[in-house]
Amino acid sequence: MEVRDLEAFLAVMSTGSITGAARLLDRSQSQVTRLIQDLETTLGFALFERNGPRIAPTDKGIAFHEDAERFVSGIGHLRNRAKAIAGKKK
Prior knowledge:
The structure is a single chain. Helix content is 72%, strand content 9%. It is elongated. Helix 1 (3-15) packs across helix 3 (29-43) and helix 2 (18-25) packs across helix 3 (29-43). It is built from 4 helices and 2 strands, in the order αααββα. The N and C termini lie far apart (36 Å). The protein is mostly helical. It has helices at 3-15, 18-25, 29-43, 59-87; strands at residues 48-51, 54-57. Strands 1-2 form a two-stranded antiparallel ribbon.
C-alpha cells in the first residue's frame, strides 16, 4: 500500500469524483484511476462503485475512509516533525 494511492482515494472521497481528485492532486484522470485500481488490488476489495461516469463509495470504502484519513494525516505530521528536527541546530 502506497501513500500516494491513499492520497488519491482520499481526494476522490473528498471531491466525489475522479476528475475533481485529479485537479486537486494535479494529476491526470488516468493517473488517479490507476492509483485507485492499485489500491483496490492491494486491499482485495472495491472502494467505489462505478456506473458510467458516476462513482460512489462502497460500504467497504466508507469503512476504510476514516482509518486512511488518520494514517495520511499522521504521515503529514511525521514529515513536518522531521523537517522541524532537521532545522534544529545542535
